[in-house]
Amino acid sequence: MSNLQRYVYPGFGEWAQKNMSYSQAIRVGDRIVCSGQGGWDGRQKEVNTTDLIKPDLSDEIDQAFTNVDYNLRHAGGKGWSQVYRVVTYSTDIPSQHDRIVENFRKWMPDHCPVWTQLGVKQLGVEAMHFEIDVEAYDEEGAAEARKAKATAA
User: Which residues of 5-41 are buried (b: 16+ CB within 10 A; e: fewer)?
Assistant: First the structure.
């Protein structure tokens, strides 16, 4: 699938690509498909996995939502306003559910996406308690990406 446009945001995204061989977002037609985002500071330049995740659970969840917005905008989107699908992964749904809903209301005050909420035993980094992945519809940005690709060719 080398023909798909991939995005790796500066900081943690570049570190993850180099050390774990994955992209933060990929454009598929008019959609932006995002990799799972956790409670790390997406803009940090130096990544230390021992203190990567915010220690407070509410802060971890809030940071993951911030990272989704950062990731979508880096991929040429407009952020949460374009999100139509959300999957959350929680190591303890009861302690996280209300904070997730608060973030939905904060980041998407004008629409409600489809949402799948999953309880899991463990996530990719031992200290993680929450992860979120999204898909966004970005027809306008997809047209711009196609123009840029054609110009570069």
Answer: bebbbebbbebbbeeeeebbbbbeeebbbbbbbbbbb
C-alpha span between 55 and 64 (Å, rounded): 13
Give tens-digit pLDDT for 115-149: 999 999 999 888 899 999 999 999 887 778 777 77
C-alpha torsion sign, points 129, 12, 136, 56: positive
Q: What is the DSSP string of 77-136?
A: --SGGGEEEEEEEESSHHHHHHHHHHHHHHH-TT---EEEEEE-S--SSTT--EEEEEEE
Q: Is the torsion defined by CA of 7, 13, 89, 122 positive or negative? A: positive
Q: pLDDT for 77-106, tens place per residue?
A: 999 999 999 999 999 999 999 999 999 999
d(CA 10, CA 14): 6
Residue carrying structure tokens 């959350």: 88
Measure the CA–CA gap between 37 and 106, rounded to whole angstroms. 17
